[in-house]
Amino acid sequence: MKQIDFDQKYSPIWKSFEADIDNHNGRKAKLDPAFPENYRKICNHLSLARQRHYSEELIDYLNQLVMAGHHALYKQDNRIKLGYIGFALNVFIFTLRKYSKAVWLSTALFIMPGLLMGLACFYDETIIYSLMSPSDVAEFESMYDPSLDKIGRERGSDTDLMMFGYYIKNNIGIAFRTFAGGIFFGLGSVFFLCFNGLYIGAVAGRLTSIGYGVTFYPFVVGHGAFELTAIVFSGAAGLIIGYALINPGQQSRLTALKNAARDAVKIMYGAAFMLLIAAFLEAFWSSSTSLPVELKYAVGAGLWFFVIWLCFLSPLGRQREPN
């Protein structure tokens, strides 16, 4: 096909496509529904023009259309993705507030044993051995020794990226067990919440008593805002399932379980994302000893405020849950 025939046959598509882009960029109007199909056609036209050695002017013109079309589609795709993220965040927060009693009960089951065990281990150095073996205690003490270049779990590898993967596996494993324990009429979730609270409290009390709080608290304050709250939320999701099994109401237990699980999973999606953030912070931020302690505390306080505000005080989730 000669170039003049090629121009006459396809120029209406090019002009319409170009006008659609101009309208979209200038007036922020939505792209025509046929835009993606026209974009595909113009990409093909550009390929044909190059294969047939049409003029450089035509090739440049089609190439500009393709780049502008790709940019318009990319921006639109980003807006769609942001819309999905906003929707998922709103559903997560709405569900947390819908089951606020389960969240507060989970918080109490996690914090109270931790506080009591922390105080006990601070004042009596032998109590921690009722929960951990001497080798485990020695490992934790070596992890938070102020003389270390890196704070936290001993590296099997020298790379923070390896630790990022380890923290993801470890944190999500803890959260999933806490959630899945709800299937045993909530007793499993109660056990894992209390056990994790006791464990963390014992470590905190022990390290504080021997003077390692100067490394322990700056380490945990940042990622703890996401990690500890995610564990609490996972426990709340398990308690939701457990309560549905204990008190199904007018429904069968299977139906009540299905309905409760539908909401519990919404919480778990959010908790899993929080744990990814926590793992990233723990591997690349918390373990660094080159950062000033004051900065770690300031950032940690800001992250705690942000998480609490977002989940319980922000405008998100106040409306009825989107369908």
From TrEMBL:
This is Integral membrane protein. The keyword Chloroplast does not apply. PANTHER family: SLR1478 PROTEIN. Keywords: Membrane, Transmembrane, Transmembrane helix. The chain crosses the membrane at residues 80-96, 102-123, 179-204, 224-246, 267-285, 297-317. InterPro entries: SpoIIM-like. Pfam families: SpoIIM.
